[in-house]
User: Which sequence fits this backbone?
């Protein structure tokens, strides 16, 4: 699932651009992990911030999120959000048995504890995935779009999104969202990629999208 | 950690406020990051209100508690309409975290939100009885209308202010 805020950018064009970015992200993750990885679909829809939080799992649901800031010609925020069980499974697949799956009675059976190796692997997944999307977006501009250093957190989905949405929704309550599905070795692992350019960046993206079509 | 409420649950979404004087009901603000939840509870009338403020200041329009500066008045009006006396009320607040270190320096909205709540209350001659501000953890807040318990939970801990 990929989420992008905008009221101005043409949704089908952005969906096409994001699909290309997600395909590259899948290839990059496959090269990194040695596993078959596919990230497909980019169903872009407009929604409010509350709906965005529900889509990402609900405000009170504990998730693993990898945050990356967007700099360069575009400014904003990007997140990879994974449910706890999906994050554990993803880390276990990518680390090829170097960590054991752990469960407890809460959070849908998944433990809140992630060791440094798991968090590092998930941080790198977020880095590779989001950077691939930003690279494709950057091709619309003379200069590349740069990601900041990734930061992984284990938190309420609502609290994470609340923090990154605050500086974006001061003058607008509408957000554009696009959904995507991740599959690794044929196993579906739910996740959400959120790309949130600021308002000025969205206007730049809208203009660039028109040029992209022309 | 699942929230348990015996009676009706009224949820203050981002920028929203809720109020009740119904025994057994609970007011909730889920998933506060940089946002701040402000609660008021009158021990005599057992009226309660909870706001989920998003930003310290901003233009008119939008959800009633989106901005602290404009939303506080609406919050106080809703509380008073249910029989709550703000002079008698227990005022408590939580939130204002800085969860992502790479963003903290640039925005620091969590700190600004908590400062705005304190400043606006002080301008009215009011002060918080208890607060849980700052840090790097998200929070969920629930306010019990029956007894005024102001429960703050995060992924790693849970406390009653």
Assistant:
């Amino acid at each position: 699932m990929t989420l992008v805020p905008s009221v101005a950018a043409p949704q089908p064009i952005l969906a096409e651009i994001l699909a290309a970015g997600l395909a590259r992200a899948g290839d990059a993750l496959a090269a990194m992990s040695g596993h078959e990885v596919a990230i497909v679909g980019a169903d872009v829809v407009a929604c409010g911030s509350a709906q965005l939080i529900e889509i990402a799992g609900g405000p009170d649901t504990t998730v693993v999120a990898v945050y990356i800031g967007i700099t360069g010609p575009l400014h904003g925020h990007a997140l990879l959000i994974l449910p706890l069980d999906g994050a554990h499974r993803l880390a276990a697949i990518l680390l090829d048995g170097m960590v054991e799956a752990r469960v407890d009675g809460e959070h849908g059976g998944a433990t809140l504890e992630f060791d440094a190796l798991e968090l590092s692997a998930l941080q790198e997944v977020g880095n590779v995935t989001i950077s691939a999307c930003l690279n494709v977006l950057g091709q619309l501009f003379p200069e590349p779009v740069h990601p900041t250093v990734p930061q992984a957190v284990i938190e309420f989905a609502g609290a994470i999104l609340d923090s990154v949405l605050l500086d974006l929704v001061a003058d607008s309550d509408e957000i554009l969202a696009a959904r995507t599905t991740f599959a690794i070795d044929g196993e579906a692992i739910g996740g959400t990629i959120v790309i949130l350019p600021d308002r000025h960046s969205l206007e730049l993206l809208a203009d660039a999208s028109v040029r992209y079509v022309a | 950690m699942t929230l348990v409420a015996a009676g009706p649950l009224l949820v203050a979404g981002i920028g929203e406020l809720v109020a009740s004087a119904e025994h057994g009901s609970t007011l909730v603000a889920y998933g506060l990051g940089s946002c701040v939840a402000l609660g008021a509870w009158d021990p005599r009338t057992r009226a309660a209100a909870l706001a989920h403020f998003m930003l310290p200041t901003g233009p008119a329009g939008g959800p009633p508690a989106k901005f602290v500066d404009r939303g506080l008045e609406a919050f106080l009006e809703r509380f008073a309409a249910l029989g709550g006396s703000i002079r008698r009320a227990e005022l408590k607040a939580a939130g204002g975290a800085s969860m992502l270190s790479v963003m903290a320096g640039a925005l620091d909205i969590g700190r600004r939100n908590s400062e705005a709540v304190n400043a606006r209350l002080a301008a009215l001659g009011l002060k918080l009885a208890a607060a849980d501000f700052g840090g790097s953890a998200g929070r969920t807040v629930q306010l019990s209308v029956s007894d005024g318990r102001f429960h703050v939970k995060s992924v790693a801990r849970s406390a009653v202010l």
Remarks:
- Chain A touches chain B through 34 residues (CB under 8 Å).
- Residues 74 and 201 of chain A are 5 Å apart (CA to CA).
- The radius of gyration of chain A is 16 Å.
- Chain A has one domain: 2-193.
